Amino acid sequence: MAMETTASGTSVGVDNPYDHVERCDYLTDDGRCRFAIEHADRDPSFARARNADDYDCPVGTSSWEWRDCPKFQSIDRSHECVRCGIAEVRMAHDDDRPLLEIHHLSYRRDDSVADTDAGLAHEITVELCRWCHAKVHNAWARIDDDVNPATEAIAEQQARRSKEHAEFGFHTAAERHQE
Q1: Is 113 helix (H, G, I), strand (E, B) or coil?
Q2: For residue 162, is it within any domain?
Q3: What are residue 143's phi and psi, to 5 degrees?
Q4: Is 141 part of a structural domain of the chain?
Q5: Residue 98, Cβ neighbours under 10 Å: how many?
Q6: Residue 83 structural domain
Q7: Are strands 73-75 and 123-129 parallel, antiparallel or unpaired?
């Protein structure tokens, strides 16, 4: 199987984006399709079909795969790099570039076809640190490589944690006045 690529031909770091999906974002804990329940107006025929099946997710109740469902999406919100494991540290009221970036594993195959089954690719994303993100796109690295965080990533994360801990410190009014 060939590694998936973006429309411009750069690697996305996986052979099959669906191998990196745990579940659909619309799948409820009781196996129902939240899209059909909450967004019926966006696709009435899909919602009617799900309603006829008591809103059961078609992947769980039939022979469908994730790729067969027209409403499937999987957006990772783990706040850590899926490749090296480094966790995000965001500073409030700070414009520093985030440590993690959204990485798309699935792209539209045909940009000339808008929102039809032929041109629609499912939204499948993961979070990568910006160092792993660059390696995946530029150096043909893979998402599932077993790697440690880059030293630059660790240094940036630790600098943010130090700054965060300094903000938690208690200083008396006298100490703040002397500063």
Answers
A1: coil
A2: yes
A3: -60, -40
A4: yes
A5: 13
A6: 17-24+72-178
A7: parallel
How far is 117 from 114, CA to CA, in rounded Å? 9
CB distance 56 to 31 below 8 Å: yes
Instruction: Please report whether residue 38 resides in a domain.
Output: no
> Could you give the strand order of the β-sheet that contains 123-129, starting from the edge strand earlier in sequence?
73-75, 123-129, 100-104
The strand pairing partners of 11, in sequence order, are 5
136 within 8 A of 127, measured Cβ to Cβ: no
Could you report the per-residue pLDDT of 76-91, keeping only the tens digit for each?
A: 989 999 999 999 998 8
Is residue 91 assigned to a domain? yes
pLDDT digits (tens, 9 = 90+) for 32-66: 999 999 999 999 999 999 999 999 998 877 878 99
Amino acid identity of residue 152, one-letter, is E
Identify the residue whose tokens are 């880059």: 150
* Secondary structure class of 143 (helix, strand, coil): coil
| Tally of structural domains, the chain | 1
Query: Which residue in 106, 97, 55 sits closest to 76, CA to CA?
Result: 106
The pTM is what? 0.79
pLDDT tens digit sequence for 102-119 = 999 987 655 444 444 444
The residues, any chain, with a CB within 8 Å of residue 73's CB and separated by 6 or more, are 24, 25, 26, 122, 123, 124
**E-assigned strand segments in 119-158:** 123-129
